[in-house]
Design goal:
Blueprint (H helix, E strand, L loop, with lengths): L2 H4 L4 E3 L3 E3 L4 E6 L6 H11 L7 E3 L8 H13 L4 E6 L5 H14 L3 E5 L17 H11 L3 E6 L10 H14 L3 E4 L5 H13 L6 E5 L5 H10 L6 H9 L4 H21 L4 E5 L5 H10 L1
Parallel strand pairs: 3-4, 3-10, 4-5, 5-6, 6-7, 7-8, 8-9, 9-10
Antiparallel strand pairs: 1-2
């Protein structure tokens, strides 16, 4: 099923009247460098939650045979609807066209179109595409894939502010994007404010909330350094309190994510997209508590 179909579906309630009942659930994973069987085992534990799709990340220019094997296994052997990521800043137009042909022949219906991180070595860049909206336009003109794009509730780290970032988002939507998947966030007020700003800009496609359960102090520190993400003081204090106690920190992360998700569900969010880090435990516990 395509993104445009997944997020246009409503649940039937009371004599055939269509009404929002629950958000669509999806999971994000990354191709492991070794032992992909561990990933498959973790996803088999999450399958009972009937995710709408599994998204598979990639780094800029890093589609390779190993990640293709994972993609094919998730789709053909495990029966998941899959949404591979595609970055363009380090990839030629020819390679992107070939990859799009490959995934369409595989029966893939959806793709997440991203610029990708600018490489430290500028010689690794390919100048066929400079921005994600150019990639979205290329995909729309050459395929019938349903296209997702990234959104940043607190603004992309390279943007001067969230307003400039929404201007760039509108370019992606005007080029053909059909759903927005947000960067992880820990302040729901930032997400709700972002939705209002996006709607005020005339963007009306679904906005799916990105949720990452807290697993480690190191994980959170890395995220804050790489992206523009606010950690509320009460949460920061708890992370500091349990930073050397893995189990307690993980349980606290589950509790906080449940709080986040319940508030988002009350606001009738279109979807919850879980950044699993290739682990099932926390996401399973969250879903058991909120669904």
């Amino acid at each position: 099923m395509k993104l445009c179909e997944i997020y246009s579906e409503k649940d039937i309630k009371n004599n055939g009247i269509y009404k929002w009942v629950k958000p669509k659930i999806s999971f994000e994973v990354f191709p492991p460098q070794s032992e992909p069987e561990k990933l498959y085992e973790e996803l088999s534990k999450l399958k009972k939650y009937s995710p709408e799709f599994i998204s598979l990340t990639c780094r800029a220019g890093e589609h390779n045979q190993e990640s293709n094997i994972v993609l094919e296994h998730l789709k053909n052997d495990m029966g998941f609807n899959v949404m591979p990521h595609l970055t363009c800043v380090c990839t030629s137009k020819t390679k992107i066209f070939d990859y799009l042909k490959y995934i369409q022949n595989l029966g893939v219906k959806n793709i997440l179109a991203l610029r990708g991180d600018i490489p430290e070595n500028k010689e690794d860049m390919c100048h066929d595409f400079h921005y994600a909206n150019e990639l979205v336009d290329f995909i729309r003109k050459n395929t019938d894939l349903s296209i997702g794009v990234a959104g940043y509730p607190e603004g992309h780290i390279e943007s001067p502010d969230v307003y400039a970032d929404i201007e760039n988002l509108k370019k992606k939507v005007d080029a053909g994007a059909q759903a927005i998947f947000t960067q992880l966030f820990f302040n729901n007020d930032k997400f709700f404010s972002y939705i209002q700003l996006v709607r005020d800009a005339g963007i009306n496609i679904p906005i799916i909330a990105g949720i990452m359960p807290i697993l480690s102090h190191k994980q959170i520190s890395k995220m804050v350094n790489l992206a523009r993400i606010e950690i509320p003081k009460t949460l920061a204090d708890k992370i500091e309190k349990y930073k050397d106690d893995f189990k307690s920190l993980r349980e606290m992360g589950i509790d906080f994510a449940c709080y986040q998700c319940n508030q988002l569900i009350d606001a009738e969010v279109a979807g919850l997209h879980f950044y699993t880090l290739n682990k099932s435990y926390s996401v399973s516990q969250i879903l058991e508590n909120i669904l």
